[in-house]
Amino acid sequence: MSTEPTTPTGPAPDPSPAPGSGPAGAAAEELVRFEDVTKRFGRTTVLDHLDFTVGRGEHVTLIGPSGSGKTTILRLLMTLLTPDEGRIAVGGRYLTHEERGGRLVPAREKHVREVRKDIGMVFQHFNLFPNMKVLRNVTEAPVTVLGLSRDEAEQRGRELLDMVGLADRCDAYPSQLSGGQQQRVAIARALAMRPEVLLLDEVTSALDPELVAGVLDVLRDVARSTDITLMCVTHEMSFARDISDQVLMFDEGRVIESGPPEKIFSEPELERTREFLSAVL
Q: In what side-by-side order are the strands of the sheet with 246-251?
């Protein structure tokens, strides 16, 4: 992971890269790149000329006060929002832009869908299909979106449900599960799509306190046992310390400090970071 100065006076990306080129300055190990990204809601600027990269296989946690832009980053990656300025790339391909005639232009939906296949997300709320049993919830998208056979999808689904500790609940409906179990199904469902990057948006915030530890333990196992890239928004600071390679501190739509967790949590450089950590720890 690397961050770059997020001041609007910095050099703007070349608007017309050579045909066939990837993101400006992209390196082979990069998976996600934000290039001078700005997002506004009305007169409020939520992300302010944001530049950062995430390496393949890296675990990055975004921390900061509510409203600092963390979840907006994840929603931009899922194309639930589009940037007002700047560009986002995943796996060397721009997400909402594509090259036509040697120029970058707004991407067609087919291009967006193709790039978005590499991205999975687990939301605060589980969003399971209530009329489908657990195994069907996990296998439906791999069959309909990735084109896997039902048998192949079910084999993969059972393996993932076993990994999240729910091998015995394949035939249950979501209403028969606790909140923590439903969130574990949601994690298995996201992993079933074999994404290159998994986005985690405050995945324990809707859970009763006694259910939080089980979900976080599952995510620790995912971090330890797979090579998937993780981008996590959380207020669970002990979890962030455990799983992160890098921690990014956000404030007012910018990365104001970044580094390995031992540095950010033990020896932050900025007073704003110390104030935030003092409030949440």
A: 119-122, 197-201, 229-233, 59-63, 246-251, 254-259
| Phi/psi at 248 (5° precision) | -110, 125
So what's the pLDDT on residue 24? Answer: 47
- Residue 67 tokens, joined: 């409203």
| C-alpha–C-alpha distance, residues 74 and 231, integer Å | 8
Provide the 10 A C-beta neighbour count for residue 153. 22
Question: Which of helix, strand or coil describes residue 264?
Answer: helix
pLDDT for 11 beyond 60: no
| Closest-CA residue to 120 (of 62, 160, 61, 77) | 77
* Element counts in the chain: helices (H) and strands (E): 9, 13
User: Which CA distances in Å does 217 have to 137, 152, 195, 201, 211?
Assistant: 22, 27, 20, 16, 11
Count CB atoms within 10 A of the CB of residue 131. Answer: 10
Report d(CA 258, CA 59) in Å as an integer. 13
Nearest to 48 by CA among 79, 16, 5: 5
Q: What is the pLDDT of residues 105-147, one digit of tens each?
A: 999 999 999 999 999 999 988 889 999 999 999 999 999 999 9
- Closest alpha carbon to 192 in 161, 234, 232, 237: 161
Tally of residues, the chain: 281
Listed in sequence order, the DSSP H helices in 64-149 are 70-77, 109-116, 134-144
Distance CA 146, CA 214 (A): 30
User: ∠ at Cα 97 (95, 103), nearest 5°?
Assistant: 145
Q: How far apart are CA 252 and CA 127, in angstroms?
A: 29
Between CA 231 and CA 170 the distance in angstroms is 28
Token duo for residue 210? 């006694």
Mean per-residue pLDDT of the chain: 89
